[in-house]
Specification:
about 270 residues; alpha+beta; six-stranded mixed beta sheet; two-stranded parallel sheet; 10 strands; elongated
Length: about 270
């Protein structure tokens, strides 16, 4: 292998000329050309160094981008959690009555439908009761609407204390309430209704300006899927008919399917 030595300061055209001259002379194979003072070797070192620096910068940029992506994902996950919390709070707000804190009409009807489905799957009996405060208009007329609102709050609190955590209660409208009592023992509907009425009727309401008592009337029906197909509408109609009977018989009592449960007016 012949080595051509280019003098220092030799222009590039001169190096190319030497290479062409050697090829023309028939010297085949690899023809290394070495510049004096290690010019080509220095150039090779510079190229390697530059390549290393470029690769290092690329790796650093990649790490920075990955870090930013991880941070953006963390922020996005946090925002999604906050959004889910807001959605749940909004759902709860939309399903509850502002005055009493109970479920509102839409909320309690939703729970009624859900409990009917669950009872069909798992068996058992549910009790559906409509409750109306007796002569509530007289309370508003005699003591004012603020006292009436306070009476609704007191009654709602009494209902909440009387039912179990897996029962449901809602303000159906005005001074009327809808209760859905689940897992009623076989033959235990009358006893449960009687106990509930005793717990939430004959309440003494105290406000800053007045003190008075309130009573309530109840009409209820039992839902037993083994007895035949029922719908929420048919259950509500039966409970409403029982409530009408309770009022007709003198109020302050509970009626289950036109059968007097608590006929004694107190």
């Amino acid at each position: 292998t012949q080595q051509l030595v280019a003098p220092a300061g030799k222009p590039a055209d001169g190096l190319i000329g030497l290479a062409l001259h050697a090829l023309a002379a028939g010297r085949n194979g690899l023809l290394p050309v070495t510049a004096e003072f290690g010019v080509l070797r220095s150039l090779e070192f510079c190229c390697v160094t530059c390549l290393f620096l470029l690769l290092t910068a690329s790796v650093l940029r990649t790490g920075q981008v990955s870090g930013r992506i991880r941070e953006q994902r963390r922020v996005l996950d946090e925002r999604n959690r906050e959004l889910e919390i807001c959605r749940e709070q909004l759902r709860i707000h939309l399903a509850h009555d502002v005055l009493t804190g109970m479920l509102n009409r839409a909320g309690i009807l939703g729970e009624l439908a859900a409990e009917m489905d669950r009872t069909r799957r798992e068996g058992g009996t549910a009790l559906v009761a409509l409750v109306n405060l007796d002569h509530f208009k007289r309370v508003n007329d005699a003591y004012g609407y603020q006292a009436g609102d306070e009476a609704l709050r007191w009654f709602s609190a009494a209902v909440g204390a009387a039912i179990r955590v897996y029962d449901h209660a809602g303000r159906y409208g005005g001074d009327e309430f809808l209760l859905v009592l689940t897992d009623i023992p076989q033959g235990g509907a009358e006893e449960r209704l009687t106990s509930l009425h005793a717990s939430v009727s004959n309440l003494q309401i105290q406000t800053q300006e007045s003190e008075f008592g309130i009573t309530c009337s109840m009409g209820a029906t039992a839902f037993d899927p083994s007895a035949g197909g029922e719908s929420p509408e048919s259950l509500l109609a039966a409970a409403d008919q029982a409530l009408y009977t309770a009022k007709k018989q003198g109020r302050n009592r509970a009626i289950l399917h036109s059968t007097a449960i608590l006929a004694k007016q107190q």
